Amino acid sequence: MGYLVLESKRLIYRQFTDNDYLELHEIMSNKNVRKYLPGNGSFSEKQSLACLNSFKDSFKIEKPNLIYAVILKDTNKLIGYAGVAYVKEFNFNEILYGFNEDYWGKGYASESAFTMRELASHLKLEKIIAFTDINNQPSEKVILKLGYKYIKTIDLWGLTLKYYELILKGEQK
């Protein structure tokens, strides 16, 4: 399995490029998208650019830390991001995702999360973690579909979050 480009039924996952800035800023500046994410609300242009650069650089970090642009196959439009990101506070990786609000409720988060779970398994990660804001029920449903187990509620990054773990050991293909 190569890690630069991945595919699922309806989506392509590829590295971010500078050309993705406007579409990523549209996502990151949306107050509804940012409602349950760390930081202080909608991202400014400068914050979105920093986010884009962080996502682009994620492939260069030694620990598995791959954050992809999520592209619709049939239109080639960037609709979100998804990845297996390293969380230094826990020394484990988490599956993360975020989507343009226009694409909510269509199953893209679940499709992406399952693809990232498969990637985590191929990366030979033994355990992955996840966080959801205590009020973000749609994201919690995705996490539970993946097989995560709720561990505890924590305060992290200025948010009250539910913390989950998923053991992958033995799933490697």
Concise structural overview:
This protein has 173 residues and is of the alpha+beta class.
Write up this protein.
With 173 residues, the protein is an alpha+beta fold. It has a single domain, classed as Aminopeptidase, CATH 3.40.630. Helix content is 28%, strand content 32%. The protein contains five helices and eight strands; from the N terminus they run ββαααβββαβαββ. The chain has an eight-stranded mixed beta sheet, with helices on both faces. The chain is globular. The model has no long low-confidence stretch (mean pLDDT 87).
Number of domains: 1
The CATH superfamily is identified as Gcn5-related N-acetyltransferase (GNAT)
Count helical runs. Answer: 5
Radius of gyration: 15 Å
In CATH, what is the class?
A: Alpha Beta
Gap between N and C termini = 10 Å
Q: How would a crystallographer describe the biggest sheet?
A: 8 strands, mixed
CATH topology group: Aminopeptidase
Helix content: 25-40%
Mean pLDDT across residues? 87
Structural class: alpha+beta
Total strands: the figure is 8
Question: What oligomeric state best describes the polypeptide chains here?
Answer: single chain
User: Low-confidence spans: pLDDT under 50, at least 5 residues?
Assistant: none
* SSE succession: EEHHHEEEHEHEE
Output the strand order for the largest sheet.
1-2-3-4-5-6-8-7
How would the global form be characterised? globular
